[in-house]
């Protein structure tokens, strides 16, 4: 068996004499390379070379396996503790320890297809205990070609695209070496990345131009690259990080974002987008609310950071906007605590968790009930309550009686009209502004600023340093 392995390696090397001397791709990792996890762990992955010369190599031995030709379907398969290579479904007998690397071997454009998407750069297939994991390794600028337009939109003004390029580069740089064997993913968990496919979209050349114009530039605060969070639309005001998540960061402070309204004024509206990123409305029935609470509780059973919501029949929902310090409302007016009140107690959800619970675009909202009434108390003071269930009314003779005992609805009469409302709400209507967590740069705010003549550096100063020119924040070129 050992003899067969040696013969196989020699035959492969003879069949591919053009291959460069063995080299470990990890040894070449530098500041301008990024590692992108293309998917989770799977039993196998498949790819095709599209353009350019590649070599498939075994990283454990630094020896070439084969030269994949354009159009061929290759698979890397988890087989026991090892990896197997297959062409068009036919497995080769020789196993490899891995990682297996699909590596470009000369200059020029190199592309391969994985999972329906074309990618530049190299492909590393890691050997994990329970499967294989594909990782795209490529220069940072080429990675950004596939990110900036997907996040900002290819049609955005050039200065907004430049701002997104610098922000996305900074965010990616801040994540390097923080996730193990890869730095970023391909979805909103980090940044949306669509590989070379993004470059071929309409106006993709504008994105490439914006990335190239800001090559190597990152945002630095007090000498450190910032975790440059961004979102779609702030709804008029961004928020400080401690009022959305936990950690207070000096470059994520609340600032006015008046240009967010540009989304509502944008001439190319498609099914209400992007106007609904600025202002929106959502109705939730009582049944839908219970379903959302149930989904939340299922997550909470396996997540100690989430509290269970067991309040029985819900009669009211209270909102608080108090900031993390507990002494004033949040600068943006975002909700920081939502309390569900029921006949078995009450439970609260905090800050950005509120978006998850109710499926909202942001936490900048108000809520109304179809059961809300304006009442007078015993002192003649006027107030609004959201539930008449269990309430008593007082007659002229001083007697009190349970409101519409035994019925689900109440009938209200005024001088001008009569109406029927439920004693407990059957539906709530949530009216809000903004889309996303509200931290850092508002993308539609940046687009509006750029349209009004602001340069990309001023946009970045506004959102990450409150528009101050005090030397704390700078844009540095690192390569």
TrEMBL record:
Entry annotated with the keyword Signal: yes
Domain Sporulation stage II protein D amidase enhancer LytB N-terminal as annotated: residue spans: 131-221
InterPro entries assigned: Bact_Sporulation_Assoc, SpoIID/LytB, SpoIID/LytB_N
Assigned keywords, A-Z: Signal
Signal peptide: 1-25
Superkingdom classification of source: Bacteria
Gene Ontology annotations of biological process type: sporulation resulting in formation of a cellular spore
GO cellular component, one term: outer membrane-bounded periplasmic space
PANTHER family according to UniProt: AMIDASE ENHANCER (PTHR30032:SF4), N-ACETYLMURAMOYL-L-ALANINE AMIDASE-RELATED (PTHR30032)
Entry-linked NCBIfam families: SpoIID_LytB
Name this polypeptide is given: SpoIID/LytB domain-containing protein
Native source organism of the sequence: Metallumcola ferriviriculae
């Amino acid at each position: 068996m050992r003899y067969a392995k040696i013969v196989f390696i020699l035959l492969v090397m003879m069949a591919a004499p053009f291959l460069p001397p063995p080299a470990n791709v990890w040894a070449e990792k530098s500041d301008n390379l990024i590692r992108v996890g293309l998917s989770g762990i799977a039993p196998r992955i498949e790819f095709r070379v599209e353009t350019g010369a590649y070599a498939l190599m075994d990283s454990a031995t630094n020896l070439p396996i084969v030269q994949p030709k354009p159009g061929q379907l290759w698979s890397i398969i988890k087989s026991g503790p090892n990896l197997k290579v297959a062409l068009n479904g036919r497995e080769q007998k020789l196993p490899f320890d891995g990682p297996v690397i699909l590596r470009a071997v000369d200059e020029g454009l190199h592309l391969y297809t994985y999972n329906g998407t074309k990618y530049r750069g190299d492909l590393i297939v890691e050997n994990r205990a329970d499967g294989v994991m594909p990782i795209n390794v490529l220069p940072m600028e080429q990675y950004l070609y596939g990110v900036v337009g997907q996040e900002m939109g290819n049609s955005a003004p050039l200065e907004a695209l430049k701002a997104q390029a610098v922000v996305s580069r900074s965010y990616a740089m801040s994540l390097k070496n923080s996730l193990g064997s890869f730095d970023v993913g391909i979805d909103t968990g980090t940044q949306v990345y669509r590989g070379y496919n993004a470059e071929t979209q309409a106006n993709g050349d504008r994105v490439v131009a914006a990335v190239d114009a800001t090559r190597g530039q990152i945002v630095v605060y007090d000498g450190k690259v910032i975790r440059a969070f961004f979102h779609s639309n702030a709804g008029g005001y961004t928020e400080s990080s401690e009022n959305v998540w936990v950690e207070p960061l000096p470059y994520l402070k609340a600032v006015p974002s008046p240009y967010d309204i540009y989304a509502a004024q944008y001439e190319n509206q498609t099914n209400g987008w992007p106007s609904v990123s600025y202002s929106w409305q959502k109705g939730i029935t009582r049944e839908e609310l219970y379903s959302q609470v149930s989904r939340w509780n299922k997550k909470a059973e396996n997540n100690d950071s989430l509290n269970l919501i067991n309040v029985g029949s819900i009669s009211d929902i209270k909102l608080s906007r108090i900031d993390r310090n507990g002494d004033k409302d949040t600068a943006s007016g975002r909700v920081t605590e939502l309390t569900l009140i029921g006949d078995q107690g009450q439970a609260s959800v905090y800050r950005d968790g509120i978006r998850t619970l109710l499926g909202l675009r942001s936490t900048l909202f108000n809520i109304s009930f179809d059961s809300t009434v304006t009442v007078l108390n015993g002192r003649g003071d006027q107030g609004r309550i959201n539930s008449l269930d269990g309430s008593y009314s007082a007659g002229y003779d001083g007697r009190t009686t349970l409101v519409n005992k035994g019925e689900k609805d109440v009938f209200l009469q005024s001088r001008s009209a009569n109406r029927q409302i439920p004693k407990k709400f059957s539906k709530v209507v949530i009216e809000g502004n903004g889309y996303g967590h509200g931290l850092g740069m508002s993308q539609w705010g940046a687009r509006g600023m750029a349209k009004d003549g602001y340069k990309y550096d001023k946009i970045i100063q506004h959102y990450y340093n409150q528009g101050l020119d005090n030397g704390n924040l700078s844009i540095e070129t690192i390569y």
